[in-house]
Design goal:
single chain, 2 helices
């Protein structure tokens, strides 16, 4: 597999970790500031995930995924 495709897969793995962490952090938080932090982390994870999935699809549709 090309390194550019491996990096897309690694990105998708990282965003899943970000989502898990943001959910755990939100459940364990003591104050509003932490809620904001984990909300931002979750939002960024979903934004990155959307872009990475679109890039993966583009590579697959154009025969660049190997």
């Amino acid at each position: 597999m090309k390194s550019c495709n491996e990096n897309i897969l690694k990105t998708l793995e990282l965003v899943e970790e970000m989502i898990v962490l943001s959910n755990a952090g939100d459940n364990d938080r003591d104050d509003v500031g932490c809620g904001i932090l984990y909300g931002i982390l979750r939002d960024c994870a979903y934004r990155i995930k959307k872009i990475a999935e679109a890039e993966k699809k583009s590579h697959m549709d154009n025969g660049k995924w190997d």
